[in-house]
Specification:
mainly beta, 43% strand, globular
Length: 110
């Protein structure tokens, strides 16, 4: 893997060919693997579906959620959304199409 991020009981890793993988405890859909894996433990790195065509610039883990920043400034999020307007956890990557407030991203070395 090219890089790894750590959340609460889960991991995300980007491969050298740019794909994103997750493994660990999938409570609240934090692995982004879909409904069939919710609340299961996934013991091997598994490619996250729905991001195949996304050129990933950066990604991060929160306690029980994850976000991806893609080329063209597209954002994806999944997992526990209790601090947002979503009432339910999101079990797979969901494109964020609007924000309640302007977004300010820190500079990242690329």
């Amino acid at each position: 893997f090219y890089s790894v991020q750590v959340g609460q009981h889960f991991f995300l890793a980007q491969s050298t060919d740019g794909h994103l993988y997750s493994w660990g405890y999938n409570g609240n859909g934090r692995l982004g693997l879909g409904e069939e894996f919710v609340a299961q433990v996934v013991s091997v790195p598994t490619r996250i579906p729905g991001l195949e065509a996304v050129h990933i610039k950066d990604y991060a883990c929160g306690g029980a959620h994850a976000v991806v920043w893609g080329k063209g400034d597209v954002l994806f999020s999944w997992g526990d959304q209790s601090d947002s307007t979503a009432a339910e956890p999101i079990p797979c990557p969901l494109a964020i199409t609007s924000l309640a407030a302007p977004l300010s991203l820190p500079a990242i070395d690329s």
